[in-house]
Structure formats: structure tokens, C-alpha cells
Write a structure and sequence with these properties.
The protein is mainly beta. The protein contains 4 helices and 18 strands. The chain has a single domain, classed as Glucose Oxidase, domain 1, CATH 3.50.30.50. A hairpin with a 2-residue loop joins β5 and β6. One of its GO terms (biological process) is L-tryptophan catabolic process to kynurenine.
Length: 253
């Protein structure tokens, strides 16, 4: 199914039957991605009297209770409610679901202290030649499918410098997606400078903007411009498991 769209005065086509899924599947147990010491996702059948919600255990249907922590179990999308004292929910903040998105790949810079950081200068070099897009997808290097089963807790994973995030805000990025547990350092004393810079909180909250963490972009997906479809469950909390999907764009000459 082909569709066309206009971006920055150019006409593009895309095939909606060729999705590029960049979400990490949610599954129970320890053999999946996890961070911030969150308990792993669990599910169990509902039991009521003689009824059990498991076909394997003799029930007529599978009827499961699921326990998960969106920020710690797999790909998730969060809104400013993640850091705000006021109530913002992902269902209220994310009201549109298709965006032009630029995919870039970057090696975090190792500091003398051992941190791995993405700096403003790196993003300026990668994005300077491209028109601004509403969404930015960051793939960190090196990249392999171990990212789908890594437990990042206590590992001090890479993160973005808050000035790098300020640069993205200046470029008009409203939806930031990355294959890391957080835009901020794992242990930063609660400063959350990157989150605050992105959402401009508390000075002028960008309530319609989102951060999606713990994606995985396969190496077969090339850097470039894509149509992003970002879907979440309609949770009235600050974050939801999510399913970002990319569609390759072909420009009409």
C-alpha cells in the first residue's frame, strides 16, 4: 500500500506494507532488556472460583494479569509527567502519531571519568546538513542485538549531555527516540538535566513532546529520513510501553 507525503517542499512515497519495527518485544523473565533495577515483567492467569485463565492449565481462554514497569521493561515512551510535579499523562500529551524522523548513528565519546557521552558538537556535525525534523532517532555505536537482552542496571550506560539536548530543542525536535535506558546519566543525583532541557521544565513545559527509550535499530536499517509511526497504550500515567515503527521514504525527483 503506497502513500505519498510532502516534507520540506519535497514529495516522498512510502510503502505502508514494509514496516521497520524498532521496538524491543516485551516478555516475561530475565532474558530481555531491563534497567534501573526494575523487576522483570510478569504475567499470570486470572483465577476466579473454578475458572483459570490459561488454556495450558485447562481453562477455556488465556486471560492474564500483566505486571510491568514501563520505564524499566522494554521500549517505552514518556511525557513531561515523568519529571513534573503536575499531572501530565502520555495519553493526553501524545495526540499525533506520524512524524518525519531522521535516523542517525553516533559513537558516544568516552570521558576521562569513564562515562560515555553524546555531545552537542557530535549532533551538530551529524545533523547540520539535514533539514530539521519533528522526530530524531539515535542509534548508538557499536550496535548489535545484545541490546535486546541487556540488563543496564548499575552499568552506567551512555547518555546525552544536556547541551546536546538543548541543541535538539533548538532544531525543533519534539520526539526523541534512542536505544539507551535514559537521556541522562544513570546516577546523577536527581538532577535530570537532559530531561529538563528537553521538556523545558519547569519554565515552559513542552507537554506535547515525548522521549522514547530502549529502542533497537537493526544495522540493516540505514541512516536517513523516515516516516515514524509512534504508538502507545492509552495509559493515564506518565509513560507507556510503545511500538515505534519506521517507513522508508523515497523522494520524487
Amino acid at each position: 500500500m503506497q502513500t505519498t507525503l510532502q516534507l520540506n517542499g519535497q514529495t516522498y512515497s512510502t510503502d505502508l506494507q514494509q514496516p521497520l519495527d524498532i521496538a524491543i518485544p516485551l516478555k516475561a523473565g530475565l532474558e530481555t532488556v531491563n534497567c534501573f533495577y526494575a523487576p522483570p515483567m510478569e504475567h499470570s492467569p486470572v483465577v476466579a472460583g473454578d475458572f483459570i485463565g490459561s488454556t495450558q492449565e485447562g481453562g477455556p481462554v488465556n486471560f492474564l494479569t500483566v505486571r510491568l514497569t514501563p520505564h524499566g521493561n522494554g521500549t517505552h515512551t514518556e511525557c513531561v509527567g515523568h519529571i513534573a510535579k503536575e499531572t501530565y499523562t502520555i495519553n493526553q500529551c501524545l495526540q499525533q502519531f506520524h512524524f518525519p524522523g531522521q535516523l542517525i548513528s553516533v559513537f558516544p565519546t568516552k570521558t576521562d571519568e569513564g562515562d560515555r557521552v553524546i555531545y552537542r558538537e557530535q549532533l551538530e556535525a551529524l545533523l547540520g546538513a539535514h533539514p530539521p525534523t519533528t522526530a530524531l532517532i539515535i542509534r548508538t555505536l557499536p550496535n548489535d542485538d545484545l541490546k535486546m537482552i541487556t540488563n543496564y542496571s548499575g552499568a552506567n550506560p551512555p547518555y546525552l549531555h544536556h547541551e546536546a539536548i538543548s541543541y535538539l530543542v533548538e532544531r525543533g525536535v519534539e520526539h526523541l527516540l534512542l536505544d539507551l535506558p535514559s537521556v541522562d546519566r544513570e546516577e546523577d543525583g536527581g538532577q535530570l538535566l537532559g530531561h529538563r532541557a528537553f521538556w523545558q521544565y519547569p519554565e515552559a513545559p513542552r507537554a506535547h513532546c515525548t522521549i522514547t527509550e530502549l529502542i533497537y535499530v537493526n544495522n540493516s536499517i540505514r541512516d536517513g529520513l523516515y516516516l515514524l509511526n509512534l504508538q502507545v497504550a492509552s495509559f493515564e500515567i506518565d509513560a507507556s510501553p510503545s511500538k515505534p515503527v519506521l517507513y522508508a521514504l523515497e523522494r520524487f525527483e
